[in-house]
Amino acid sequence: MADPELSFPTSIGTSDASTIRLLGQDLAADLMGKVGFGELAFWLVAQRRPSPSQVRLFEAVLVALADHGFTPTAIAARMTYLSAPEALQGALAAGLLGGGSRFLGVTEDSGRFLADALADLTEPPADDAGFDAVALAAVTRARAERRLVPGLGHPVHKEQDPRTPVLIRIADEEGLHGPHLRLFEAIGRVHPQVLGRTLPLNGAGVCGAALADLGLPVDLLRGFALLARAAGLLGHLAEERRNGLGMEIYRTVDRNARYVPPTPA
């Protein structure tokens, strides 16, 4: 029985002996079989139900971030599963813990970089030339401060990340091509002037821009990347069960280990 003197308010969900309430809805009667998981994830965070257009772009982002092959996050998950196959949750967590400034975390870093550049403006630029000016100032400032511009470059896709134009096209089709995406595109146009070389706009960066244009909190964008990658990692772990590679990865490194005398600090 609830204590009437205690109160823990939440806008997420509650339950009792016969019902589960989620986002003000009856979970069993109103949501199950009627709301997709992507729509629900957006709704849970934003506390507003997304439109069909927003759901399409949001789920495209999740698909774009779900997997990228044998990344360090996938290898970490597989190796942890090799060590402790009885603890699937540990293997999945190990992969998610690797989502940082080089892998996955770029989604949030890009969104934050773009949001910070736009925050100083009273209103977004009216045309590409205006966005180019804002982008040039932001990239120049980052260069002067010896900071990387998140969303530029990719270890595999040297010319173009195939995810980038598709997400921009979907945002355009759904009327969601907002200021963050436009600024991100502008960075792609102007950065060679500052960096002296041309780098592709990567998929994690465009995902961050798209999520920011959807009005999702910049401080939580890494969480969406992790949500997406959890599906990819679970796929890797299922494959590890069917056709284990973890032992071979371990043996390859172990057999090729070479002792090097320590260098004094």
Tell me about this structure.
The chain has 265 residues and is mainly α. The chain has a domain at 106-220: Cytochrome P450-Terp, domain 2 (Cytochrome p450-Terp, domain 2, Orthogonal Bundle). The chain is 58% helix and 3% strand. It has a three-stranded antiparallel sheet with strand order 1-2-3.
Question: Rough shape?
Answer: globular
Note the beta-strand portion. under 5%
Order of helices and strands: EEEHHHHHHHHHHHH
Fourth-tier CATH superfamily name of the domain at 106-220: Cytochrome P450-Terp, domain 2
**Rg calc:** 22 Å
Q: Could you tell me the mean pLDDT? A: 94
Question: Per CATH, what is the topology of the domain at 106-220?
Answer: Cytochrome p450-Terp, domain 2
Class by SSE composition: mainly alpha
In oligomeric terms, what are we looking at?
Answer: single chain
Number of strands: 3
Q: What is the CATH architecture term of the domain at 106-220?
A: Orthogonal Bundle
Q: Concise description?
A:
The chain is 58% helix and 3% strand.
Spell out the key features of this protein:
mainly alpha; globular; Cytochrome p450-Terp, domain 2; 265 residues; 12 helices
Ordered list of secondary-structure elements with their pairings:
Blueprint: E1 13-15, E2 20-22, E3 25-26, H1 27-31, H2 37-46, H3 52-65, H4 72-83, H5 88-97, H6 106-119, H7 128-144, H8 163-173, H9 179-195, H10 203-213, H11 221-242, H12 246-255
Antiparallel strand pairs: 1-2, 2-3
